[in-house]
Specification:
With 250 residues, the protein is an alpha/beta fold. It has one domain: Copper homeostasis (CutC) domain (TIM Barrel), CATH 3.20.20.380. It is built from eight helices and ten strands. The strands form two sheets. An eight-stranded parallel barrel has the order 1-2-3-4-5-6-7-8, surrounded by five helices. Helix 5 links the parallel strand 5 and strand 6.
């Protein structure tokens, strides 16, 4: 296996299999990638498992929006961590914040206990934290394995300076997983300018719906989103990044 990790974020069985064919090492499995991802169904997880043994980390996020959760929402998150562990998922991707923009340590401790030895990624709630260096140290104290981050910027290239500092502070037991805007071009730059070894991409392409009849008077999508467009992982985009990482590992 390459010394560089490539994780693909997918929200369908088709995308999962294409990501694996392109060379992904593991999946971040979610639903509703178009709104940043929400918790996937167990049925989707099991469908992928019927066809693949690729490592799967399930995103646990009950809704779109911020990472300040009500007690009811937190109980759902807690239960879903347990359910995916029982289903055999290798990891979970989680994150809860306080109103002040810090990690909610009490909530995170409960989630870590529920994960019971699964690999745990702190998702981009990290990018919404007031102090990324404090949050990194808290993640270490919790025993979190990975932090998914763009360097608190809209894209990984815009956040490259913070990514360098986070990588330097992370130490050997915590992986900084660079995300947001990861493609072959971005990876070339990151390989040249950083020591990052883990990359997270969706590699999406937009497919046209197969619907022949389309009612022009009714829209089921959100403003600016068409229900006649389908996001799917582009195997070739994943393969292009995989090739760069394999070359860098030689």
């Amino acid at each position: 296996m390459s010394s560089y990790l490539l994780e693909c974020c997918v929200d369908s069985a088709e995308s999962a299999l294409l990501a694996e064919k392109g060379g992904a090492d593991r999946l971040e499995l979610c639903s509703n990638l178009i709104i940043g991802g929400t918790t996937p169904t167990l049925a989707l997880y099991r469908q992928i498992r019927r066809h693949s043994s690729i490592r799967i980390h399930a995103l646990i996020r009950p809704r779109f929006g911020d990472f300040l959760y009500s007690q009811e929402e937190f109980q759902i998150i807690l239960e879903e961590v347990k359910q995916f562990r029982q289903a055999g998922a290798e990891g979970v991707v989680i994150g809860c914040l306080t109103p002040e923009g810090r990690l909610d340590m009490e909530a995170m401790k409960q989630l870590m206990e529920a994960a019971e030895g699964m690999s745990v990624t702190l998702h981009r709630a990290f990018d919404m934290c007031r102090d990324p260096f404090e949050a990194l140290e808290q993640a270490k104290a919790l025993g979190i394995n990975t932090i998914l981050t763009s360097g608190q910027a809209p894209s990984c290239l815009e956040g490259i300076e913070l990514l360098k500092k986070l990588q330097a502070q992370a130490g050997p037991d915590l992986t900084i997983l660079a995300g947001a805007g990861i493609n072959a071009g971005a990876v070339r730059t990151l390989l040249e300018q950083t020591s990052l070894t883990a990359y997270h991409m969706s590699g999406k392409r937009i497919l046209e719906s197969g619907m022949q009849f389309r009612n022009p008077r009714v829209s089921m999508g959100l403003p600016g989103m068409s229900e006649y467009e389908i996001w799917q992982t582009d195997e070739n985009a994943v393969r292009a990044v995989r090739r760069l990482l394999d070359e860098a590992a030689r």
